[in-house]
Amino acid sequence: MTAQPAVSPQQAHEHHTRRHPTVPISQPTIVTIDGPAGTGKSTVARLLAERLGLDFLDTGAMYRAAAFIVLDRGLDPADHDEIVEIVADADLHFDWTTDPPQVLAWLQPMNDRIRSREVTRLVSAVAAIAALRRHMVRKQRIIAHQHPRLVTEGRDQGSVVFPDAAVKFYLDADANVRAERRAEQLRAAGKPVDAAVILEELRRRDEIDSTRTEGPLVVPEHAVVLDTSELSVEQVIDQLESLVRSRLEKP
Ligand code: DC
User: Fold this and answer.
1) Considering only CA atoms, which of 173, 141, 152, 145 is closest in space to residue 46?
2) pLDDT in tens, 42-57
């Protein structure tokens, strides 16, 4: 006999909805989450969006798709004009029928190709190209126009792209903790891990992301800063959720 799940998907959905009613608002609501790699930002943003009944935008996936295109087409990383032209031609956008939404280039889903080691190594340099950032910012604002109830995460969402967002967060964590989280993800995926190399690469990305001239990683004005070093994902989401609710549910 096949074992039955203790809770059916329908019951789980009802439980989830009862425990976490969506934010009772109809007006556009943008929540931004910025911060360096390894703070749990993506997971937190996706689950927070789910709890609040908002859409979720992973802007890092757009820069990763651009870096993938540079590698795949053998483009010269120094030829900024060509990179911007070809990435614009790819018409990056998301398939909102998948969870989480998948980034598409030339209508093709990018899938895990944008998470490879090679892409991760190159992406900060590609994301530092000023003209490419301006292109992405325009696209992200169009996406927000089409999905006006949004949790969006990245490095410049509260500082540059949506400075008037309803609630802005900045997640941070100790670099060693962030590197260890990344190492743990790789171990779980059965991949070889060199903790010292991971920490070194993470620091290098932080450095490039924070010192570029266009849209550097900064704490946005009026952002709520949360250090996640000692917190579980669930604890972070709980804090963010109650903060968003207290801000938005005020009469
Ligand atoms: O969050 P992530 O690791 O997927 O981001 C990949 C890279 O993209 C990261 O090195 C910084 C860059 N990025 C950015 O510059 N601006 C954003 N809004 C999102 C990501």
Assistant:
1) 152
2) 999 999 999 999 999 9
E strands present in the chain: 29-34, 55-58, 93-95, 102-105, 108-109, 149-154, 167-172, 224-227
Residue 13 scores a pLDDT above 70: no
Q: Which residue puts its alpha carbon closest to atom 11 of ligand 1?
A: 124
What angle, 0 to 180 degrees and rounded to 10, lies between the N-to-C axes of helices 130-146 and 59-72? 130
Cα 231 to ligand 1 centroid, rounded to whole Å: 22
DSSP structure string for 185-248? HHHHTT----HHHHHHHHHHHHHHHHH-SSS---PPTTPEEEE-TT--HHHHHHHHHHHHHHHH
- For atom 15 of ligand 1, the residue with the nearest CA is 127
Residues 181-236 pLDDT 10s: 989 988 998 888 899 999 999 999 999 999 999 999 999 999 999 999 999 999 99
Q: How far apart (Å, rounded) are the C-alpha atoms in residues 82 and 90?
A: 12
Q: Is the CB of 155 under 6 A from ligand 1?
A: yes
- The whole-angstrom separation of Cα 156 and Cα 169 is 11
Domains by residue range for the chain, with CATH: 9-244 (3.40.50.300)
Say how many Å lie between the CA of residue 60 and the centre of ligand 1.
Answer: 4
Per-residue pLDDT tens for 112-137? 999 999 999 999 999 999 999 999 99
